[in-house]
């Protein structure tokens, strides 16, 4: 894999998220899709408390979700 091929940003966490929590990223993004109206850190904390995700993994999922749904981070 060349330097240009490396995944960067929040998506770089996706393989470890899937391995650690046993669910595809689509599962977590689907859950976040139902959290309309929540701010960035509210979603992060929700993933942490309700689903046991670590802070970095939850933050990466929320950041990617917000960036790809056109919702401005709050």
Overview of the structural elements:
This protein has 74 residues and is mainly alpha-helical. The protein has one domain. 59% of the residues lie in helices and 0% in strands. It has four helices and no strands. Helix 3 (40-51) packs across helix 4.
H and E string: HHHH
Mean pLDDT: 90
Pick out the low-confidence regions.
Answer: none
Number of strands: 0
Sheet bearing the most strands, described? none
Number of helices: 4
Helix content: 55-70%
The total number of structural domains is 1
Rg calc? 12 Å
From the spread of the alpha carbons, the general shape counts as globular
Gist?
The protein is mainly α and 74 residues long.
List the helices and strands and how they pair.
Layout (H helix, E strand, L loop, with lengths): L13 H8 L3 H9 L6 H12 L3 H15 L5
Helix pairs in contact: 3-4
List keywords for this structure.
74 residues, mainly alpha, globular
């Amino acid at each position: 894999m060349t330097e240009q091929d490396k995944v960067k940003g929040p998506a770089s966490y996706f393989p470890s998220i899937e391995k650690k929590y046993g669910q595809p990223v689509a599962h977590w993004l689907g859950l976040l899709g139902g959290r309309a109206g929540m701010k960035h850190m509210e979603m992060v904390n929700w993933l942490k408390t309700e689903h046991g995700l670590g802070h970095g993994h939850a933050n990466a999922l929320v950041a990617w979700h917000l960036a790809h749904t056109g919702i401005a981070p709050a």
